[in-house]
Amino acid sequence: MYDINKVRGDFPILSREVYGRPLVYLDNAATTQKPLCVLDAMREEYLNVNANVHRGVHYLSQQATDLHEAAREKVRAFINARTTSEIVFTRGTTEAINLVAQTFCESQMQEGDEVLVTDMEHHSNIVPWQLQARKRGIVVRHLSITDDGRLALSPVCCDTLATYLTAKTRLVSLTHVSNVLGTVNPVKDIIRLAHERGIPVLVDAAQSAPHMPLDVQDLDCDFLAFSGHKMYGPTGIGVLYGKEEWLDRLPPYQGGGEMIDKVSWEHTTFERPPLKFEAGTPDYVATHGLATAIDYIHSIGFDAIEAHERELTRYCMQQMQTIEGLTVYGLPPTADGQQERDAVISFNVGNIHHLDMGTLLDRLGIAVRTGHHCAHPLMDRLGVTGTVRASFALYNTKEEVDALIAGIRRVRQMF
Q1: E strand or H helix at 260, and its extent?
Q2: pLDDT in tens, 327-379
Q3: Is 105 a catalytic residue?
Q4: Which of 168, 184, 271, 291 meets the CB 3.0–4.6 Å disulfide criterion with 71?
Q5: Contact 91, 237 (CB under 8 A)
């Protein structure tokens, strides 16, 4: 049984007040709170196992190395990669995508070649490709979406995807779950169709990793990226998964210590992946924190997490329908187990500016996100300058949804 009180007890910050009111934290798509077990694990390592990893021969260094590499194995199992050689630690999803953009375009693309993204991408899956377009003359194309927030090829079929995948397409890079609409994209179908044309696929899993199981072998994606801080882990740590054959082919991302085999004035050789892409001292304490967060997620179980968050999302959208003038962007949640919407709801109310709504909700103790959510092209497609976004996590409750709905009603009465 899902014991929400026990879960909430693992997150001390949820018991605090803001402006003299109980905190209602609904900004989880931006960052999640951290359970005590994660904080305790990182504190313990700093207190008792703090030493640089890998090359040290002394006890603390070897112990820190063991924790760091155990975290890599934990991540490997979390996404069902074949080997830890396919797990590269980064500072987050943004760096992971930049790593692929820079190294893939350098080694696999020529002027005029194309990368395909979608209209619902976060800026971190748009701007890195635009930078490469300026630098190397590649072309960034974008797959459109429907008015209800699906990719414009649902149901997926070869004919529709073929209009976007041209002879010059070298890579598809798309989000698994939209950070604005909550749309769960049919990435497995897209990957299959892209592979039929010999095109590799990168999946931005920043918004899916905290909410649903990931199996990179089942998806058959070539690259996948996610961040620790969105899944109850520390900030500043993320993961790039890459098929071993791809990581072998790509050049190093940065130069420095850790990623080299041998350096001379005449020639430098590099380590094999993943170390080839991990120049400098890694955040070995954060990797341990990420591994602990993964353990925490597994202790609850994705079945329970998905069911809880799906019910919160359904309940919240049902209550929102009773508020006059409130517009929700994207798909409704489905009741048949076919999950097309994740635990994110973006909305506006009448002519109330999203910033005004968010600011006044904050004064009621309700933390939501406002603005463009690092998705300007999607805002343009929706015809708005921004939205209010409520996003749920495993520790949120129906009572918090009720507080949000009551807060929206109160703000609406002010305008």
Answers
A1: strand 260-263
A2: 999 987 554 444 588 999 999 999 999 999 999 999 999 999 999 999 999 99
A3: no
A4: 291
A5: yes
